[in-house]
Design a protein that fits this description.
It is globular, with a radius of gyration of 15 Å. The protein has helices spanning 10-17, 34-42, 55-61, 79-85; strands at 24-27, 47-51, 69-72, 93-95, 97-100, 106-108, 114-116, 120-123, 126-127. It is built from 4 helices and 9 strands, in the order αβαβαβαββββββ.
């Protein structure tokens, strides 16, 4: 995991997903990839498809070399279309993460140097059958 992003509520997300090694999972907002990297450690013959339209997210995704990983540089509103086009009819779990990341929240500080106010993340999971 890089210093770029430390996932929040990671254990809760993994527990909620109840990952099956051969399952197909979707990360609707890849971001820094912390949740996705943890998922990849648990799947064996499965698939992880991630979506993000941010160029910084693409840079993070390019560091992941697992064959089970697919990065889609697109808004997750295209998720259903992408899955259908690639013959994926069943998803074992998915999650969106809504976040304000410190790399996106740059505010001027008292001495006019760039500053940041941390980040807030709200993650949830839903088992899809």
């Amino acid at each position: 995991m890089s210093d770029y992003h430390v996932p929040v509520m990671l254990d809760e997300c993994l527990k909620g997903l109840n990952i099956e090694p051969g399952g197909t999972y979707v990360d609707a907002t890849f971001g820094g990839g912390g949740h996705s990297r943890a998922i990849l450690e648990k799947i064996k013959d499965g698939k992880l498809i991630v979506f993000d339209q941010d160029p910084d997210a693409r840079k993070e995704a390019e560091m992941i070399k697992e064959r089970s990983f697919t990065f889609c540089q697109a808004n997750f509103k295209y998720l259903k279309k992408y899955l259908k086009l690639n013959g994926i009819s069943k998803v074992h779990g998915s999650w969106p993460t809504l976040e304000f990341h410190r790399t996106r929240l740059i505010l001027p500080s008292v001495d006019s140097q760039p500053g940041w106010m941390g980040h807030w993340t709200c993650a949830w999971t839903k088992k899809i059958r």
